[in-house]
TrEMBL record, chains A, B, C:
<protein>
    <submittedName>
        <fullName>Nuclear transport factor 2 family protein</fullName>
    </submittedName>
</protein>
<dbReference type="InterPro" id="IPR037401">
    <property type="entry name" value="SnoaL-like"/>
</dbReference>
<dbReference type="Pfam" id="PF13577">
    <property type="entry name" value="SnoaL_4"/>
</dbReference>
<dbReference type="InterPro" id="IPR032710">
    <property type="entry name" value="NTF2-like_dom_sf"/>
</dbReference>
<feature type="domain" description="SnoaL-like">
    <location>
        <begin position="17"/>
        <end position="151"/>
    </location>
</feature>
Amino acid sequence: MTNIADDVLADLLARVRRLEDERDIARLIASYGPLVDAGEADAVSGLWADDGVYDVEGWLMRGRADIHAMVESPQHQGLIGRGCVHFHSPAVIAVNGGVASAVCETILLVRRDDSPDGHSRGFTVQRGGATHFELRRADVSMHGWEVVRRTTRLLDGSAESTELLSRARLSGGATAREPDADRRA
Amino acid sequence: MTNIADDVLADLLARVRRLEDERDIARLIASYGPLVDAGEADAVSGLWADDGVYDVEGWLMRGRADIHAMVESPQHQGLIGRGCVHFHSPAVIAVNGGVASAVCETILLVRRDDSPDGHSRGFTVQRGGATHFELRRADVSMHGWEVVRRTTRLLDGSAESTELLSRARLSGGATAREPDADRRA
Amino acid sequence: MTNIADDVLADLLARVRRLEDERDIARLIASYGPLVDAGEADAVSGLWADDGVYDVEGWLMRGRADIHAMVESPQHQGLIGRGCVHFHSPAVIAVNGGVASAVCETILLVRRDDSPDGHSRGFTVQRGGATHFELRRADVSMHGWEVVRRTTRLLDGSAESTELLSRARLSGGATAREPDADRRA
């Protein structure tokens, strides 16, 4: 039997907390697609901070009410009625104290009305996008974190879209490794 | 140096165990696509409980033998021979003691036989689906968990399909946060 | 208050380290798509070991310089300029001390030039692939791990492609569960 050193325990607790933070953020992002494709306007808008921004080209939403209205809009309800999948790749998450960022790629699939190949209606990929999240810790939220800003841009070769993806480099670099002292504890 | 309080240690062990449970379930779900696209009938059916159910519209499988038979069926083997990808999004996982649920979206891509655009045969997206898993802990299983029921429905605007996705809301709400006391330990 | 047994502490630290290793590898793999679609040649080639291999059918790259050249090649830059998404599924990761393997499925989406359905240009799925990673621990790397070999094969029904996916079975079996003694600590 041995006593555990104060700093070893503090370090261990911080490492577990970081894993939980990353898990919470990954889950928040993973829930966006299912919730928006289900038309869950309250749950989708609840992923954002009260003053959160959702900036997708052609549509700038400020605050939960705007995001709620997007989910209930004829445009989005039309996608759901036809059959749609907002698919997100696993995100590259970087937590830095009470704030975090995440980068992923997103595709939007919509069910075809026609049947061009004869044996399946199938889906078309209507959009492919670069997505960047800024988040902040929110212990009162059921997710533990809330989205401060989500920016999504069509992947069409524009510098604006690839710049969002490049942040996966900075994020990874900033947080991929704890200081060696922490890892060796 | 200090002693660690009993409740702090118990809490820490419970938090690590939860992260491991979520990791085990995420890995089980992530392995489904590669295994079913490889035709690994034993490994695929082994993800389910002995009495597990796989309910995909038009095909209700009860027990591992049914699932094994699906993988070896001419229909599925035809997909593999042509070239297919059963793609799953990151799952929203909720563990509650010895049971768990998970929600994700799934797409099925199949290689084209023709070459409509002249420079690539490419793949078509044949289906987009809503998927819900019920799982239970199974310490004797190599995965630590086994699927009790998987339900998949085509995303075609039906209430049945969007209801499956809505469970991402309930799952998240139930388990996204530990009680504050646990987090502050 | 109680002392923590040496073996309980050692076990707990090992379990947290494993979760961190898996997190680091998942993040490395998740970053590949955003980085390669952004044309970040330094960051992409930096995911590989100095002597790492990237073996994709029709293109065998040996070492970081080869991978860097692929990202800057006219072929790849053409994809970026048109708009592309290298989408990876969540990986099945198996860590074994200082080495690890991972299996995932990958799809390549490219923006259409034409507008066949009249209301969206959309993307086509140009390729679907089986991908296997061999990695090794690299504490000096900012990712903590580096790719020793990545093998990707078109999913076209060939034994070579499905054999890569079958490794998700072996990986899972090898590491899905810690010995019971560790889990019960």
